[in-house]
Structure formats: C-alpha cells, structure tokens
Amino acid sequence: MPNKWYDKNGEQGDVVISSRIRLARNLNGYPFPHLMSLQQKNELANKVKDALDNSNSYIASTFKFINMAQLSATEANSLVERHLVSPAFAGDRSGRYLLLTEDESISIMLNEEDHIRIQVLSDGLSLKQAYDVADKIDTLLDNALGFAFHEKLGYLTQCPTNLGTGLRASVMLHLPALQSGGVINRLEDNLSKIGLTLRGTFGEGTDAQVGMYQLSNQVTLGLSEETAIENLQSVTMQIIGNERDARNEICKRLDTQDYIMRCLGKLKYALLMSTKEAQSLLSAVRLGVAQGIVNGISLDTLNSLLVELQPNTLTLNEGKELSPQDRDKLRAELIKEQLK
Question: Looking at the structure, do residues 95 and 145 belong to the same domain, yes or no?
Fold first, then answer.
C-alpha cells in the first residue's frame, strides 16, 4: 500500500501542514443535488466514473469508486478526519459516491452540495502543484461530460458564493505562537478585508484544534484561478513570517521550553490518552521540533500521528469496535511506538 500524502512534510512544513485545491462543478441536464432523485444521483455518479475509466489518464486509473451508502458510520467519519470529505457528505450518505486515489491525495465527492467536488491535497505549501493536478482532472471531466457554465457568471454552482471559478484554495496552518499571543481574532478581521477567511480545522463552522487553522479564499467571481492562488500564496508567506517571529520570541523562554518537554514526557509515558489531550501535546511537541528544542522526532511522524490518532481512524485501523478507554489505551500505545 502506498504512503499517504500526509505521511510527509513539505515546503514551509514547520508552519504549513498541507495545501488543498477544491473545484465545484455541475453537469448540464441535471438539477442540483438537493432536487435530484436517487436514480438521477446514481446515474450521474456512473457517468463520472465512466468518464474517468474511459480516459487515457494515468491518474484516472488509480481511483477507487466508493458508494458512501455502503460505508459504516466509522468508515465515513474516518474520511472526514482525514480531510477527504465534508462532514455533511459523511452524514447523509444516500446517493453519494466518492472517487479516491490510493495515496488519498485526490478525492472527488459526487452529489454533495454540487454534482462534483474535485479535491487535491498535498503536503506543505504546494498550492500551484495541487492546482495543476486538479486542473487536469477538471479538463478531463469537462471534455467528457460538459460542465454548466455561464458567460458572465462562470461555473454554475448551487451556492452563489462559489459562482465564477468554483475554486476554494486553502492551506492548513499550525499557528501555536500566534494563537498563544492572542492575535488570531485581529488576523481574522484583517484577512476578511482582503477576501480571505481563517477557519477551524475542518472548515466552515468548526473550531480550530490546538493551533490548527484553515486559510482559504472567499472570492470566486471576478478573478482567475491563478490570481486567487497567487493571493493566497502571498498572504500565507506573510503569516509564516509572523508565526516564525512569534515562535522565536516565546521559545527563548525557559517556561516555554519546559512546557514542551513536559508534553513530550506525557506522550512517551502516558498509559491513556484522549484525542483532545493528544492533539494538544503533539501541537506543543511539533513546535519544539520545528524550533530545535526537541530532537530525534520528525515532523513527518507528527503529521501522520495527528491524523491516525483520531477516534474513527484509530478504530478503523484496528479493525474492530473499541470502547472509549480501549481507544485511549491504543492511542497512547501508538504514540509511544511512533516516538521511540
């Protein structure tokens, strides 16, 4: 089995955990998903699958076709934890399908808010590389199926906020120093004035988890995909600089260094570990690794742990149902094994 995209640390990886490109698309001849019958949803999903199967693209040949209705709640929620589908998509699974590559870097949600949601995930700050992949898949499907497009409004989408390019570009940022400095609210306000938004770990309506934030574009109408990505890239680099400056200041302090090492001790020796506690401790240790306070542990390992320790993913990888205490025990063991 190939390594997952989140098993490695990419460019600017001390601050930027991942980059994501998402394109919202709809087909001519079908109503939006909330008005479609189950038969129409199944028909549309098979059309998209056939378009990929009949193409000559190497990427297209690596997709697995998943009927969401056949997944258990644990399997579906693990997809959310791995940032492969939205919480809404995992909740109501009837008539919904997922196309997913083996390394989980590309996922295509069918019959979510729109007919097609193409998503490409990549490690570190790699927006342009992720967009190139998404654009190839977009072109392939458009040529085969024909997307709904208006000369003035651009790509037609169910939600008016996605009209135009239908593009959502985002980066997952680790901002523990800026969070501890209490400047996140001010940063959110400033970003909103330039068409960007800072959200919680799993997007709109969710909380940030231990310094993890998702920065994305808000404007999709009136500018090109390339311009939106360049704007996000430029602002991300400014935030990276601000976070690094803040880290350098707080990590000079002995109490910060002590806190980081105490967090490492808990991770290495605790017998039980909840998801929330593990994420908080790993966030501190990740800061310590990035600043050279903690040695012998890679950011790759910590990135992987932040995904694999989540409850549904942990249960799925174990292959059996677990009680909350069993999960906490297994999580502690997994962390100790990885941090040896």
Answer: yes
- Distance in angstroms (rounded) separating the CA atoms of residues 20 and 83: 10
Instruction: Determine how β-strand 149-150 pairs with β-strand 63-67.
Output: unpaired
Place of tokens 């919680």: 200
CA distance 49 to 209: 35
Residue where a domain terminates, one of 227, 246, 265: 246
* 152-156-158-161 Cα dihedral, nearest 10 degrees: -50
Which CATH number fits the domain that encloses residue 97?
A: 3.30.590.10
pLDDT of residue 1: 52
The token pair that represents 96 in the structure block: 């919904």
C-alpha closest to that of 181 among 121, 247, 120, 123: 247
Segment 3-48, tens digit of pLDDT = 888 888 899 999 999 999 999 999 999 999 999 999 999 999 999 9
Sheet holding 212-217, edge to edge: 63-67, 97-101, 106-110, 116-123, 16-25, 167-174, 212-217, 196-199
Q: How many domains does the chain have?
A: 2
Model confidence, pTM:
0.92
Burial of 160 (0-12, 13-18, 19+ CB in 10 A): exposed
- What is the residue range of 266's domain? 254-338
